[in-house]
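U., I forgot to send this yesterday:
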Amino acid sequence: MTDGDLAAFDAAWDRFASWLSARCPIDHVALRSPATAEEIAALETRLGFPLHPQLRALLERHNGVIEKPEPDNFHAGAFLPLGHRLNDTEHIIRQHEWLVHERELIAVGQGEDDLYGHAHQWVPFAHPNDGGTAFVDHRPGPTYGHVYEMGIGSGADATKWASSLAELFDDLATSLDTGEPFRGSWPNPYELPSGHFCLSWDSSTRTKIASMQDWPPPRRLDSPLRPAATTGRGLGRRLGALIPPSAPRSPSVAAQDFDIPVGPFHTSGVIVNDSENPEDTNR
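Result:
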């Protein structure tokens, strides 16, 4: 791995993260603080091999995301295609141990040189809400550093997302800049019950978004949360709604805001709920 490769990762991640910060701050604020050197060393010890430099660089920026940056809602922070959210070091270990345990099932009839034959050398860096994994291949050779996504279930196949994390985030940033799909998934705003918009990826067949300038303007993170509507008596919080590019935008929610103090707060004012580190709200 050369310095140039790490520079490519830094540039790609900065493009992607800057877009989140400007358009979907509720997603950006979900990013956790960097993994410590001790956490990364412990992860490599458990894996039994060193991390790919670009995955290490990602963890040195952010140790995954907060599971629920907005209470009672699982959409914010799941800003990768297919609803994937970045893993922290502990989640990487748990998913890798599962892969090692299920290695014989995954590698049925496969040799070590086949992708499925060395599942113990996959390092999961993200997971979706409905089961599956996105991983970086760590087997030395031509596929070292390649990024794949795989659902969990009978007949699940791994799909190559990119040749590196740098390429992945560069391609995602390009998709966000142009409105073009990434691997058949289109970027779309998803309106949360609070009125914030997070990034979603729509895999249904449709035409290209007219213009990314049509993306709804973000709400200020220090705005008080509006009350969540419900789908019916006793049914709990409304989960939110995917906003197609052609759909009319909802009116300003300022009149619906209530100046009721709610906490804990991120330093920017957005409510956070980090179940793994409840005391760490200064991200």
